[in-house]
Amino acid sequence: MAQPHIGFVGIGSMGTPMAKCVLGGGYPLTVFDIDTDKAERLATEIQCRAANSLAELGRASDIVITMVQNGHIVREIMFGEGGVASTLRPGGIHIDMSSADAVATRALGAELATQGIAMVDAPVSGGSWGAASGTLSIMIGAEDEAVYAAVEPLLRTMGDKLFRVGGLGTGHATKALNNMVAAISVVGCAEAFLMAREFGLDPARIFEIINVSTGQSWNSNLMLDKRLPDPSRPLGFALELMVKDLGLAADLADGLQVAAPITHAAHRIFADASEALGQADIAKLISYLESKSGKG
Question: Which residues are part of the catalytic machinery?
């Protein structure tokens, strides 16, 4: 039986290696990006097709993956003028692997269902290194067992840790919670670094201890092993994206009427840092806190 044809929208730092994994998994692939030259270059590099429009991509695909900045863009991709939904055949599947609002995802899925198109939300964690190695963690929301069975082998080309967490929207909710915890940890690590240094302690030694103690986390490991603050060695995640993800978590908390003071505080910290530093990596949060302390 022939593999389904995959359309991949969003050729960025994550989308590019993910698309390569899909092609490497034996799936015929068509790519699209708003930067059509970028899509053409990738297609030439890996020997796949590049679509000139979203409608062309939808017409060529059985399953369409979106990996873009937010859910507003996803909706425009699917239902904007000449969007994917105008040409994707009934029985097609849309997998949104972006970070997006869980409630909006359910609404989008309901609209697609009226056209006979199923939707799965499958956001990822693991960074660009995990995307390149095909070892992403993927959080999956899917209503229908047959649809999940159809997309699982495809998702396994991009990730080795697949988590089915519930119906449509639950993947995006899970991703928001994961990034919320990660962001709070980044703030704690940055503050610990600065306080250790100001007290005359060796921050590297402190994080060595933290990493075998109760304060250990993914971010404390990064701080010690390869990212102990060095402006030339970014963590690979933009401040503005963390602001977006924390906003999703804060909105989720508000919608559920759950008190989340630390989430809202972290959102404010990252928003202020992003405004002050502009296009910058989250590793620069330390620089921002230094400036707020009069130490920068």
Answer: 175
